[in-house]
Task: inverse folding
């Protein structure tokens, strides 16, 4: 928990002796709870998990269906392997979409919207020459 960035960590997942998820506790509720409270009193059921072998589309569908902020990743035996944070997934999808659009219009992956114009011309020169020759 100390290693996690607090702006992204939202839940504490409770596991059994074998590492399988049992329940979760929202960190906000834990922080505001009475110090005498037990974790069992604060625990909630885990609404969804995703297998480590799941595709990005499956993960997106699970996030959308359950309106989650984070999603635990488990192996075939239900052992907790990690957690996918909603913000990280959204950022990855945006980057992939941008790369796909750039590829469709002939822009290299190294080029960005605010790249130096000379860099852009250098990267696009082969395409520009082909277009001029075939026009």
Result:
């Amino acid at each position: 928990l100390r290693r996690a960035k607090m702006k992204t960590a939202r839940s504490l997942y409770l596991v059994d002796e074998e590492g399988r998820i049992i329940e979760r506790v929202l960190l906000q509720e834990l922080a505001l709870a009475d110090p005498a409270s037990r974790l069992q009193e604060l625990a909630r059921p885990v609404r969804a998990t995703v297998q480590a072998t799941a595709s990005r589309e499956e993960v997106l569908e699970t996030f959308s269906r359950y309106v989650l902020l984070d999603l635990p990743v488990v192996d075939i035996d239900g052992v907790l392997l990690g957690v996918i944070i909603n913000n990280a997934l959204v950022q990855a999808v945006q980057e992939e979409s941008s790369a796909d659009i750039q590829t469709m219009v002939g822009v290299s992956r190294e080029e960005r919207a605010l790249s130096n114009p000379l860099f852009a011309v250098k990267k696009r020169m082969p395409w520009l020459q082909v277009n001029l020759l075939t026009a």
Observations:
- The radius of gyration is 22 Å.
- The longest strand covers residues 21-26.
